[in-house]
Design goal:
heterodimer; A: mainly alpha; 74% helix; globular; B: 357 residues; mainly alpha; ABC transporter involved in vitamin B12 uptake, BtuC; 0% strand
Chain lengths: 327, 357
């Protein structure tokens, strides 16, 4: 029982990171932009929140938790949205190839993240690794009355607020895409920009906004990762990159529906950590178990392309630049 | 007057129209300007971080990449690796098949090579061993290319996402084999394979340790150039890339072309795994591919699939990596600064494509 609880907890920690990543990417892809810069954007979100919190904690005598959270949150969102803006400018305005631009963004983001993550403290004249304990504690704070409810409290209420924020974001985004006029317009842009354009929708604006806001949300995955998952420290171990690609996988798994990201993310978390909780596995068979999320994603991808069900398909214009004069 | 113009509706401030074509010389000039701009931006950035004279930093980078004979050869080896992967990607990209899976194809090629070295190293004579290693790596890479291509051709499964996932399957597979072949026990690494017998290691050629790497990749460069440019299959790839409908109308079997081309693409990437293991590191780990599968995508794309231009871009990126590593160790920073610089340069070069098309 105890190990089941800790597996669920590990899955929720893990799932929250990739849930943010996939939610942001769903929003981006709905506009027809396939942004392969997700890992890089997560890095940007992670490092900028860490940097913001680092300088605030150094400057303030007694860091105020609310200010800590606000600074880290805003830094993460803005820096990631800026990453999305670079991508948007190159692919939408300059019509550069989306795949290549996204990969360049991933290389750039991981460079920025790992460079500053590894040397920020040194550049600022400190010793050892960067650590923002006050901010991290603020992000991990829970409501003790609820968290102490025994098993229920452990499984449902023992997390920082970002875990619940991610779920709320998924529900809001599902509603936004399905039930609002703006959401409908956005989907039209991703399916057929020429028709959307003819219907008077500002294609460029929609693509820019959804990519930048989507990137901002992806960055929150990075924020959650450094503040909660690694407790306000930095490790140059490339974990964020792996999580970023897994978030891209999750987008496929959800068949571009935000609500599916909630359980999909936790399922990926369970699959990823399950090998530690199955007795009698050798160390190498554990590695094979970690393949499962990717294998399942491939299976989902193949099945959706086999069934050809309209509502499960990727946006029809995914990955293609829109060039008005070329219609 | 004012109301008159308004009734006509808004005129766009700028109107963008595709160019008919830019002479090749001018196109490369524009790319060069983009590159120089990027270097200026990087210089400013480096100055902001380290407060060092940017020119001096670039000098240091140059020393890091070409300062000694040994370093030069390492840069060459790195460039050859990148070039090899880019050559593998070129046919797929020319067909507009987004093979993001080179990373995985390199890894499985490397794993196959390492497996042969471990299990057959002391059983086969040298020439036969190399033949087996070569075939195994090519077959493994080809298989990794075949699977997504098959589903793309049969069911139209999205290849970008499929090949991306195949990377992680390959990474986990590599972790699995690293754990199986672990030596010494508990080190979580394979160690140097056949460090005593050197079985399956490339012998020095013309007195150069990486001589074989250079020869193999350069032969491949010429072969790929002629394959894509002058062979019937190369022409088919081009037509499928331009328009599948046209290809079908012209009587080209599109499905076969997709599958065949991806087998070739994966095979060449698998071969670069062979070079990485047998010709360079003599070990296998999840970092054997080291992001080259992704970097090579950029090399192949920027070179417009021209093998000889790829040589230039491979050297540029290899230079950046080695150079940045040198800055990092000299100024006590970590060497991820190279990724940052690489990213900035790519943004500029990608952006400059706009002024060419």
């Amino acid at each position: 029982m105890n190990s089941l609880i800790s597996l669920l907890q590990a899955a929720i920690y893990f799932g929250t990171v990739i849930m943010f990543g996939s939610l942001g990417e769903i929003l981006t892809e709905k506009s027809g932009n396939l942004n392969l810069g997700v890992p890089g954007i997560m890095y940007l979100g992670a490092i900028s929140s860490l940097t913001g919190a680092f300088f605030y904690e150094r400057a303030a005598e007694n860091p105020n938790p609310v200010v800590c959270v606000l600074i880290a949150f805003i830094c993460a969102f803005l820096a990631s949205a800026l990453g999305g803006l670079i991508y948007s400018f190159l692919t939408i305005t300059l019509r550069a190839n989306q795949n290549v631009t996204g990969l360049a963004l991933t290389i750039f983001g991981s460079g920025v993240g790992n460079f500053f993550g590894g040397s920020l403290n040194k550049l600022a004249g400190g010793v050892g690794q960067i650590s923002v304990s006050a901010t991290s504690a603020a992000f991990r704070a829970n409501i003790p009355a609820l968290a102490n409810l025994g098993t229920v409290g452990d499984v449902l209420f023992s997390y920082g607020f970002l875990v619940y924020f991610a779920i709320a974001a998924a529900i809001v985004m599902q509603w936004f895409l399905k039930r609002t006029r703006v959401g409908l317009n956005l989907r039209a842009v991703g399916e057929n920009p020429a028709t959307a354009d003819a219907a008077g929708i500002n294609v460029t604006l929609y693509k820019y906004l959804s990519t930048c806001i989507g990137s901002g949300i992806v960055g929150l995955g990075g924020l959650y990762y450094v503040m909660d998952y690694t407790k306000g420290t930095w490790a140059n171990d490339g974990t964020i990159e792996g999580l970023g690609w897994l978030a891209v996988a999750l987008v496929i798994f959800t068949t571009w529906k935000p609500a599916n990201a909630i359980w999909g993310a936790y399922l990926f978390g369970v699959l990823y950590w399950m090998n530690y909780y199955i007795p009698g596995l050798t160390r190498y068979s554990q590695e094979l178990f970690k393949m499962l999320p990717y294998l399942i994603t491939i299976i989902v991808l193949v099945i959706t392309s086999l069934r050809k069900k309209k509502e499960d398909q990727p946006p029809a214009n995914l990955g293609l630049a829109y060039f008005r004069e070329e219609r | 007057m004012l109301s008159n113009t308004q009734s006509h509706g808004k005129e766009p401030f700028v109107r963008m129209v595709k160019r008919d074509g830019v002479p090749a010389k001018k196109a490369w000039g524009i790319r060069l300007i983009g590159l120089l701009l990027a270097l200026v931006v990087c210089a400013v950035l480096i100055f902001a971080i380290t407060k060092l004279n940017p020119l001096k930093v670039y000098t240091t980078m140059f020393q890091g990449a070409f300062g000694t004979t040994r370093r030069s050869w390492q840069t060459v080896r790195e460039a050859m690796m990148l070039l090899c992967v880019s050559l593998g990607l070129a046919p797929a990209f020319m067909m507009r098949f987004w093979n993001i899976g080179a990373e995985g194809q390199i890894l499985v090629g490397g794993v196959a090579t390492a497996g042969c070295m471990i299990y057959l190293g002391d059983k086969l004579p040298s020439v036969l061993l190399f033949a087996v290693m070569l075939i195994a790596s090519i077959a493994a890479g080809a298989l990794w290319g075949f699977v997504p291509a098959f589903f793309k051709a049969k069911f139209g499964t999205n290849e970008t996402l499929f090949t991306l996932m195949m990377n992680y399957i390959a990474i986990q597979l590599t972790s699995y084999f690293v754990a199986v072949w672990e030596k010494p026990y508990g080190s979580n690494s394979v160690g140097i394979i056949n460090d005593v017998t050197n079985a399956g290691w490339f012998k020095p050629l013309f007195g150069q340790q990486y001589g074989w790497n250079v020869v193999i990749v350069l032969v491949l460069t010429f072969a790929m150039y002629f394959y894509l440019r002058y062979s019937k299959q190369g022409y088919e790839i081009k037509v499928v890339g331009e328009s599948e409908n046209t290809a079908r109308y012209a009587g080209i079997n599109v499905k076969n072309v997709i599958i065949r081309t991806m087998i070739i693409s994966g095979a060449v990437c698998g071969l670069s795994g062979f070079l990485a293991v047998a010709g360079s590191s003599h070990t296998i780990s999840v970092s054997t591919a080291g992001g080259r599968g992704f970097t090579a995508i950029i090399v192949a794309w920027l070179s417009k699939f021209n093998s000889f231009v790829m040589i230039l871009f491979s050297f540029l990126l290899a230079f950046l990596e080695k150079g940045a590593a040198e800055i990092a160790s000299k100024f006590n920073l970590n060497d991820y600064v190279s990724d940052m610089i690489e990213g900035i340069i790519l943004f500029f070069v990608l952006g400059s494509e706009f002024f060419i098309n």
